[in-house]
Write a structure and sequence with these properties.
With 112 residues, chain A is mostly beta strands. Chain A contains no helices and eleven strands. Chain B is an all-beta fold. Classes of the chains: A mainly beta (112), B mainly beta (112).
Chain lengths: 112, 112
């Protein structure tokens, strides 16, 4: 079993819909959680960074962490065609020199 | 502007040749990484470095080599021993090993 599981999709939704992207993880030591957006043939860009549990909002994006369920989510409100990309979750532990562990990414398409 | 610069963007190599991919960062980050990304797949870690003059193998180091002589630079050499080198290569850096990573725009290597 992988440490981080992410549904690869593809996921297609109509423009304006709310998108929910999710990752589950098995390592209870993870406390730093990130979401990256990757456009085709480009490097991933950091979208959201959260520490421990709770919600964080930035414009149309909301990151949610539920440590009790080992489950993180990224919500995109009022989705736009420009949101079409692959979204990767990543997480790490603050203990020792642990590297980031990435999900495999979910490919999202917003249909105009 | 602070960031990570990868060059070249596209690279073609004949079979049997070594090739070096460049990665430079001006974020004053201690940690640097090389990932490989194949179509429809997640990120696979090749090598990482926590500090100058030190580096560690990642999950798929065979056929690759790196150096870290300067804090800003972490070049990756794809050797002729790498059996399937055609891929998208991503360099990243982070302040420490377990904090958020920032990526370059990638180098697309094609073996012809």
């Amino acid at each position: 079993q992988k440490e981080v599981e992410q549904d690869p999709g593809p996921l297609s939704v109509p423009e304006g819909a709310i998108v929910s992207l999710n990752c589950t993880y098995s390592n209870s030591a993870f406390q730093y959680f990130m979401w990256y957006r990757q456009y085709s043939r480009k490097g991933p860009e950091l979208l959201m960074y959260t520490y421990s549990s709770g919600n964080k909002e930035d414009g149309r994006f909301t990151a949610q962490v539920d440590k009790s369920s080992k489950y993180i989510s990224l919500f995109i409100r009022d989705s736009q065609p420009s949101d079409s990309a692959t979204y990767l979750c990543a997480m790490s532990s603050p203990f020792g020199n642990e590297k980031l562990t990435f999900g495999t990414g979910t490919r999202l398409t917003i249909i105009p | 502007d602070g960031g990570i610069t990868q060059s070249p963007k596209y690279l073609f190599r004949k079979e049997g040749q070594n090739v070096t991919l460049s990665c430079e960062q001006n974020l004053n980050h201690d940690a640097m990484y090389w990932y490989r990304q194949d179509p429809g797949q997640g990120l696979r870690l090749i090598y990482y470095s926590q500090i100058v003059n030190d580096f560690q193998k990642g999950d798929i180091a065979e056929g690759y080599s790196v150096s870290r002589e300067k804090k800003e630079s972490f070049p990756l050499t794809v050797t002729s021993a790498q059996k399937n080198p055609t891929a998208f290569y991503l360099c990243a850096s982070s302040d420490t090993m377990n904090t958020e990573a920032f990526f370059g725009q990638g180098t697309r290597l094609t073996v012809v």
